Amino acid sequence: MDEQTFTPEESLKIINKAILNFKVNYRESSHVFLLFGWLLALASFSNFIALKVLHAKEAYELMGLYSFSIWGIFAVIGFIALFFIVRREKKYKKVYSHIDGYVNKLWWVTLVAFFVAIFICIKLEIAPPTIMMLIAGIATATTGFLIKFRPLIIGGMAFFIFSIVTIFVPNEYSALIVCVAVIFGYIIPGYILKSAKE
Amino acid sequence: MYSDLDPMIHSPLRLTIISMLMASEKVEFTHIMEETKAAAGNISIQIKNLEDAGYIKVEKTFKNNYPKTLLSITNKGVKAFEIYVKNLKKYIYPK
Prior knowledge:
Structural class of chain B: alpha+beta
Order of helices and strands of chain A: HHHEHHHH
Number of helices of chain B: 4
Strand order of the largest sheet of chain B: 1-3-2
CATH superfamily of chain B: Winged helix-like DNA-binding domain superfamily/Winged helix DNA-binding domain
Order of helices and strands of chain B: HEHHEEH
Number of domains of chain A: 1
Shape of chain A: elongated
Oligomer: heterodimer
């Protein structure tokens, strides 16, 4: 196309083409949801099993330390794996969308909210699952709305429902509810996202 | 010929680059090459022109010891693009 004879109509075509061709592939994000989905499911399920195996009194005495260490181990594994996933993504990524930026910021703020919530729960001596699932639900549903991916929106809503459920069941079952919530909130949407077309 | 249209934007390659940057936060140089099928030298010249005009920002980093060039649009570039589109409409849809 010659610069001298370049018409406004051709100009409009170029703008339309550039904007229509802009497609972001969010399949890569499925790795993060699956990683944390499986880690959280395993951590919460092992917490539940430990409570059941050790039974009431001893379990509750040991649980504080046990929970802390099991969640700590899974968190460390998660963040190490996340570091490598992000590094790999950066290696192949050529286009950084505005939505990428919003989603990243959303999850960093969510991470801070998780730590604040843990601190509040310890201080007030309340079980963390209810409030943690509420926060996870906000971030998951918002991510779903941002990337226009319905399974994540539904996953976020599932976190809200399971967050309410924890209020009505005995404390020992709340870990099992977290496990189920994570399956609906992260694992199922993660696999659907992974299998989505480019 | 089209005096209302910013000459810095009203060029096929520069307009493609600016439009791509309007749609995203950052774009790598190699992606622009793949999308436009233009020669690297030509793209570099147009990028330099746009950068000198203050319309885009160029970040040069390294990825596995290879240079990586990331481009993003500046506020001045966004403003110029909006005015360009506004003026473009006058030609396409004259009253």
